[in-house]
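Appendix B. Raw example, untouched.
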Amino acid sequence: MINIIRIKNASFYAYHGALQEEQSIGGKFEADVDIYTDFSKAAKDDNLKETIDYDKVYKFINSVVHTKKYKLIESLATFLADEILRQYPTIEKIAVRVRKHHVPVGGVLDYVEAEVIKENGR
């Protein structure tokens, strides 16, 4: 059985970007994480120890977003996907989306988003 745990719109003020100004001034970033796993035993037993603790996953994302400056949201999304898979071997598949607001593209847009989808062991 596959179940999904979703973390949606985790928001952070951070200092990522290819331009020096972006890394100095900072901006709003959001992340979504879809965790494909089997939490049926945890649900049956009502036991947090038998599932993915999304509080710990959120705290990990928060730490990564604020520890290192990435030039590319693609790099940030890939690192998050790889490390969450490494930390939680019961995850079968993960999708990580990182959004960046106020992108300096010379026009108006809501945000730019990079998505990484990986399966455990790949």
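End of appendix B.
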